[in-house]
TrEMBL record:
Pathway stated in the Swiss-Prot or TrEMBL entry: Siderophore biosynthesis
GO molecular function, one term: monooxygenase activity
Keyword annotations: FAD, Flavoprotein, Monooxygenase, NADP, Oxidoreductase
InterPro entries assigned: FAD/NAD-bd_sf, Lys/Orn_oxygenase
Reported cofactor(s): FAD
Family: Belongs to the lysine N(6)-hydroxylase/L-ornithine N(5)-oxygenase family.
Identification of the protein by name: SidA/IucD/PvdA family monooxygenase
Pfam families given in the database record: Lys_Orn_oxgnase
Length: 431
């Protein structure tokens, strides 16, 4: 490791899509800021552990790293298509959604082209001293005026499953990282969101070999669709997000819960695909029914029996306890926020709620540092900014908000003209 300390205006920890968006916009539009983004991935893949065949984006491809605020940027998805000489074929393919594999390759292309992104350079430690953030990476030391935290979220497993974690009891986020053999195995998937659906489709298709049985359990009252209708999509606009931040804490939390299926449901296309596959296999071809969907089941306990497991659930309507004997259990149970280890030296200076940072105006983290030193965070302010915060939809806009604030001027136009819905109360109106 080099002993020399490099100075930058902004250091980014992690270069997942959210920080990569800031890196891309800073590169093309804010040359006055020196920036450096570090990611520990050597070969850039977007959620590599979930890169399964047939998986698609839940959002449109124009919601890329930059287009929402800088449509002429060289780092747009359209620039990627043109650079790869497949713009016309992409149009002819009439894809309603881009595959996750293609979007991941787009992100890789941007990350590898940007001079301000360092791959294969994990951040080990971040501290604040001598009026600077001190960032220690695997290869060097940096002094930074501002910091942007973009390390993503951690997979969440129910506490009862943690001690059993292994190749046969795993979280969805790592399923594509190992080879599995489901042949003649009793497989249970827990979790009724998009990841559960993607794994169910692949298991049903025999991607890991044909299972003896396949049970898909969901705590939800049914296999709920993603609400991607026009007025629901208004939640994913700068106008709505700005209004949302003005609400009080309790109201924001209540609204986020009520809007769950605007971001956490399964795409209608995937649901129909599953239904049609089940119909063909079990109704048309008449195979004995070995795949089962069980909503309203909350997994509550699990123990190991020999090489397998016994999983207990409670029925959401009747309270009945049910038992599932399985050889392989996959938890598609989502992600949680948490403080990255490299931030430990700063921990005492952060305002934490239940172990998570608090995000305020301009996506800045509340901390007791001196003025003029912004600690920004992306994908960490769901209760502050609403359900768009962990999604791709507004990432370019959020990056523009952060860069405008850091630059101290309106580099990007982040204002939105009023849409068809009146969110704010109106005192007097002649109807
Ligand atoms: C399987 C999956 C599919 C999704 N699909 C969609 C979708 O279609 N539409 C949508 O709107 N949202 C989607 N999301 C939600 C969200 O858009 C993504 O999770 C998105 O990747 C979040 O971006 P991020 O940059 O915050 O975090 P991540 O993508 O998790 O990236 C974090 C990065 O930080 C790096 N890192 C972590 N710690 C360090 C460290 N100490 N030093 C250096 N680097 C570090 C990691 O290597 C990683 O590259 C999806 C989520 C998942 C899990």
């Amino acid at each position: 490791m080099s002993d020399v300390s490099h100075s930058v205006d902004l250091a980014g920890i992690g270069a997942g899509p959210f920080n990569l968006s800031i890196a891309a916009l800073a590169d093309s539009h804010v040359p006055s800021l020196t920036t450096r983004f570090f990611d520990r991935q050597r070969h850039y893949v977007w959620h590599s552990g979930m890169m399964l065949p047939g998986t698609h984006l839940q959002t449109g491809f124009l919601k890329d790293l930059v287009t929402g605020v800088a449509p002429t940027s060289p780092h747009s998805f359209l620039s990627y298509l043109v650079a790869h000489r497949r713009f016309y074929r992409f149009l002819n393919a009439e894809l309603s959604t881009v595959s996750r594999a293609e979007f991941s390759d787009y992100l890789r292309w941007v990350a590898e082209h940007l001079p301000n992104v360092s791959l294969d350079e994990g951040v080990r430690e971040v501290d604040f001293a001598d009026d600077h953030f001190r960032v220690t990476t695997e290869h060097g030391r940096y002094r930074a005026r501002h910091l942007c935290l973009g390390t993503g979220k951690r997979p969440w497993l129910p506490a009862f499953a943690e001690p059993l974690r292994g190749p046969r009891c795993l979280h969805a986020e790592s399923i594509a990282e190992m080879t599995h053999d489901f042949s003649d195995q009793r497989v249970v998937i827990v979790g009724g969101g998009q990841s559960g659906a993607d794994i169910f489709i692949n298991a049903l298709n025999g991607h890991w070999g044909m299972p003896a049985s396949l049970h898909w359990l969901s705590r939800r009252r049914n296999f709920q669709p993603l609400d991607e209708t026009a007025f629901t999509n208004e939640y994913f606009t700068p106008e709505y997000t700005s209004w949302f931040t003005e609400l009080d804490d309790a109201t924001r939390q209540r609204e986020v819960l009520a809007q769950k299926y605007a971001s956490d449901g399964i795409t209608p296309a995937a649901l129909l695909d599953i239904y049609q596959r089940l119909y063909h296999r079990f109704d048309v071809l008449g195979e004995p029914r070995w795949a089962h969907l069980l909503p309203h089941r909350e997994a509550v306990d699990m123990d190991s029996i020999g090489e397998g497991f016994r999983l207990w659930t409670t029925h959401g309507l009747t309270g009945d306890r049910e038992r599932f004997d399985a050889d392989i259990v996959i938890f598609a149970t989502g992600f949680q926020s948490g403080l990255p280890e490299c931030l430990a030296p700063l921990q005492d200076r952060l305002s934490l709620t239940d172990g998570s940072i608090t995000v305020g105006d301009h996506f800045m983290v509340e901390w007791d540092g001196p003025p003029g030193h912004g600690l920004y965070a992306v994908n960490a302010g769901r209760t502050r900014y609403g359900i768009a915060e962990p999604q791709l939809s507004l990432m370019a806009w959020r990056s523009a908000v952060i860069l405008n604030h850091m630059a101290g001027r309106a580099v990007f136009d982040i204002e939105d003209d009023p849409g068809p819905v009146t969110w704010r109360p109106v005192k007097d109106r002649n109807a």
